Amino acid sequence: MLKRIMDCRHGFTNGDHQVHFVKRITRLKIADHDDFPEDDTNESNREGKLKRCLNTFDLTALGIGSTLGAGVYVITGQVARQSAGPSVIIAFAIAAFASALAALCYAEFGSRITKTGSAYVYSYVTVGELIAFIIGWNLILEYAISVASVARAWSGNLDSLANHAISNYFQKHLSWHAPGLASYPDFLAFAIVIIFTITLSTGVKASSTINNIFTVTNLMVITFVFSCGMFYADIQNWNIPNSSIPHPGPYPLQGYGGFTPFGIGGLLTGAATSFYAYVGFDAICTTSEEVRNPQRVVPLSILLTLVVCFIAYSSISIVITLMVPYYKIDPKAPLPQVFALKGVKVAQYIISVGAFCGLSASIMGSVFPLPRVIFAMSRDGLLFKILGRVHDRFKTPLYATVVSGIFCSIVALIFDIAALVNMMSIGTLLAYILVSASILILHYQPSDHSIGQSLQDDNQIELIQHATTQPQNEENDGLQNQSALHDYGSVNNNGVEFKSNLGDKSSENDLILPDNNQLSDTLSDIDDDKIDDEDQPTSQSGRTVIKCVTALSAAILALNLILIKLINQLLNRTWWAILLVCTLVLLILIVIYIIVRQPKNRQKLKFKVPLVPFIPILSLFINLFLILKLPTATWIRFAIWMAIGFSIYFGYGMWHSVEERQMRFCHKLPLNDDDEDDDHFRTKRD
Predict the structure, then answer these.
(1) Helix axes 346-367, 204-229, angle to 10 degrees
(2) Which residue, among 252, 260, 236, has the nearest Cα to 89 in the 3D structure?
(3) Which of 559, 223, 618 is nearest to 433 (CA)?
(4) How many CA atoms, within 13 angstroms, populate the side-chain half-sphere of residue 170?
(5) Rounded to 5 degrees, what are φ and ψ at 498?
(6) Cα–Cα distance for residue pair 569/185, rounded to 1 Å
């Protein structure tokens, strides 16, 4: 074994045993047998781990609460009045389709990898450590701003019911004037975040039950609004002639009538706005280690969340545009206003209940995933390790929950959320982009490699995976007290087979989880039976696809930049702008053709994205376009946030990550003397 470990040094230069900077930032997370949920069914194997207690209903309610929230009471009216008119239904359908592309990619990853961390861990096992840190760091900001903004909205709603008595008091006694800060400290929003943090700290099942109540109540109010509103529906409001419009013209005027009063451009603008109404389903993927049967439940919950949210948004859109002419809708409070116009004033109170429940579910939907992203990053060594500990009694990431709750409450207390809200979009869109690209890469990697392993040295990977295995429990771990060579073909107590890389390189099941039930064959690739070896991907074909995906992403990025920045030249048919577009489109088609020609991995999973490579590529295109549309000020704030993150990563995370310790063990390099987690590495090496 030690001889093999010594032999793996050739992956580094000059015999100085120092790891290249590039190798460090691009190294992949190598999973072990603990990634199998089947291994966690025995409670004796669960020590120091999160508790698996959530089911499909819990996860779907979490996703709906995080995605739907109270936005259904505002966004529908905003899009109908300002962009789409009655065609708001089509706008939400287009947005749902675009979101579904990313959701399908998340669903497959949820089936493949059952670790908490969502897009962070997905990026870590496919793209590399630095990119994963960037994704995780921005997910932290996204969820924190989401918690703070919704808490302020909750506070604002209560203040509105109190005739603004709360805000007037603080404005009078505690107001301040500083750029980037709110006009007064919102202590109510601060208290709301603290309350939800305490609730979440004491146990995931109790928190999930509270969230279920909020979400179900919200859906019941939406059902009431639709059922009651349809009694006042008038189909003529979907086809108002231009002559009946009091002040025709583009917004802020009242459009030109008809089903699309602001034209196709307005419809597409409405679809872009509606896209963000579906953001939130990724919160489901942060719960993988707390879910029973996550390989089935996580993908199913993601898809159910999108379906329910689309039905809810469509129902409200139909009701408000049929009840009153689109130009009479109040974009700030559409539902109370349209019912008031019909004389149904009691609906205002019912809608207020739904709004509070929606806001509460939305807070929970952001408070819940945030500490789990921090927990995952800390457990991998990229953030401070105390944040990666699980409370013995509550089985929750208590330290990460408390720290994230304090951070969110401070943001809600003092910051002007309106100035930060666009930064939420960067984290979301970056995650969507990386997950889509990772799925595209993954479908063309060989089965005898771990995810992304084709980029690394085979000897290095196989020794890291098996020489550094640390069993969780001496009595229950089927691999304890066996050499890696003797482990070949061994089966644990639950019947899950683990193969050593020393005999052959079949360790795919460390990360690509097998599908025993084959539940979604109809959504998988066809012709999977009787695949010859020559039709299987190789390391070379896998590397080819990785290079193609890199080139494809760059070409799509350039094409989107041209479509955004040179739109006037294209509309005026300027020859050089058209030539640029045609050249990039041709390049994209060539790269796609090369990818399609590569052999696919035909492994059976409980869920696989259909129509690969086209669905991930389309998702890439849409999300790259949207991220380039964000304002410059947002990118400046993003740069500041990333500067803080890079100082943590390059000053701490890169040197204390689990993969760093594993590589140092493999290459006989000094371990960190101040890190108690390295004791087992020293013991093995000595």
Answers:
(1) 150
(2) 260
(3) 618
(4) 18
(5) -120, 125
(6) 47
User: What whole-number distance in Å separates Cα of residue 75 and Cα of residue 296?
Assistant: 32
The number of CA neighbours under 13 Å toward the Cβ of 477 is 16
pLDDT band at 110 (very low <50, low <70, confident <90, very high): confident
- Ramachandran quadrant class, 120 (left: phi over 0; alpha: psi -120 to 50; beta: rest): alpha
Radius of gyration of the chain (CA): 26
Q: What is the pTM of this model?
A: 0.81
Beta bridge partners of 405: none
Model confidence at 471: pLDDT above 60? no
Contact 281, 101 (CB under 8 A): no
3-state secondary structure at position 181 = strand
Output the CA torsion sign for 336, 337, 340, 344: negative
Range from 439-448, 499-508, 566-575, 615-624 carrying the lowest mean pLDDT: 499-508
Residue 558 pLDDT > 70, yes or no? yes
- In angstroms, rounded to a whole number, what is the distance separating the alpha carbons of residues 579 and 599? 33
Q: Token pair of 681, please?
A: 């590495």
Amino acid identity for residue 143 in this structure: Y
Which residue matches tokens 């781990």?
49
The amino acid at residue 683 is: T
Q: Could you tell me how far CA 525 lies from the centroid of its own chain?
A: 25
Give the Cβ contact number of residue 666 at 10 Å: 25
8 Å CB contact between 140 and 373: yes
| Cα 514-517-520 angle, rounded to 5 deg | 90
Start-end of CATH 1.20.1740.10 domains in the chain:
33-442
Q: How confident is the model at residue 93 (pLDDT cuts 50, 70, 90)?
A: very high
Place of tokens 């390099």: 669
pLDDT tens by residue, 214-273: 999 999 999 999 999 999 999 999 999 988 888 888 777 788 889 999 998 889 889 988
Task: Find, among 35, 16, 22, 19, the residue nearest to 465 by Cα.
Answer: 35
How distant is the alpha carbon of residue 279 from its chain centre? 8
Closest CA to 200 of 347, 386, 358, 360: 360
Please give the torsion angle defined by the CA atoms of residues 569, 571, 574 and 579, in that order, rounded to the nearest 10 degrees.
Answer: 100
**β-strand pairing of 497-498 with 490-491:** antiparallel
Residue pLDDT, tens place only, 375-395: 999 999 999 989 999 888 888
The CATH code that applies to domain 33-442 is: 1.20.1740.10
Instruction: Give the CA dihedral 169, 171, 175, 177, nearest 10 degrees.
Output: 170
Q: Strand, coil or helix: what is 396?
A: coil
Segment 116-143, tens digit of pLDDT:
888 899 889 888 899 999 999 999 998 9
C-alpha span between 292 and 409 (Å, rounded): 31
Here the tokens at position 468 are 């550094």
Give me the count of residues in the chain. 686
Which DSSP string do the residues of 256-317 spell out, in sequence order? --SSSTTHHHHHHHHHHHHHGGGTTGGGGGGGGGGBSSHHHHHHHHHHHHHHHHHHHHHHHH
Enter the DSSP assignment of 77: H
pLDDT of residue 404: 95
CB atoms < 10 A from the CB of 486, how many? 12
